[in-house]
Amino acid sequence: MISLPVLVVMVVVGISMAVAAVHFTGGSRTTRLADARQALDRFAVDFPDLKPGTVQLTGNGDTAFIELADGHTGVVHAIGDRFLTRIVTPAEIELVKLDSNNVLTLRFRDFTWRGGRFAFADAATAHAVFQPLDPNKQSVRQEAA
User: Fold this and answer.
1) What's the pTM value of the predicted model, to 2 decimals?
2) Which residue from 11, 78, 105, 123 has the fewest beta carbons nearer than 10 Å?
């Protein structure tokens, strides 16, 4: 019979080895969008028939918002070493707010991706993303940080 301390050590070592194996085989890698062209290329893989417009990147390059026809917005978002692509409309948005630090908080009604906080390098870019997503179509909705 194995003693409890030996069993605990075996479990800790086993879990540590599994985590290390995932990390060293690339499981903890993250990706970023280098530029608007990469965002458009990635979006076209999933939506080849759509004609994208202006692309706005977040400050850290993990998300791109792409202007589409009919009030739709394309989203390319980095998750780990892959990209999630979506088409969203204001009707699918539960919450959208823009604060004075150019951070857009976006929450979707879709449970598969709830949204997040997206920081932009400047106010013009943040407003360009905010405007078509705002379900209330307010000209600007700002909150103090």
Assistant:
1) 0.75
2) 11
**What is the token pair recorded at 110?**
């879709």
CA distance 101 to 136: 21
Contact 117, 104 (CB under 8 A): yes
Q: Are 106 and 133 in contact (CB under 8 A)?
A: yes
Placement of tokens 């400050």 in the chain: 59
Helices (H), the chain: 4-24, 36-46, 123-133
pLDDT digit string, tens, across residues 94-132 = 999 999 999 999 999 988 889 999 999 999 999 999 999
Check if the beta carbon of residue 101 is closer than 8 Å to that of residue 88.
Answer: no
Helix (H, G, I), strand (E, B) or coil at 109: coil
Please check whether residue 79 is in contact with residue 85, taking contact to mean a CB–CB distance below 8 angstroms. no
The first and second tokens of residue 137, run together, are 């179509």
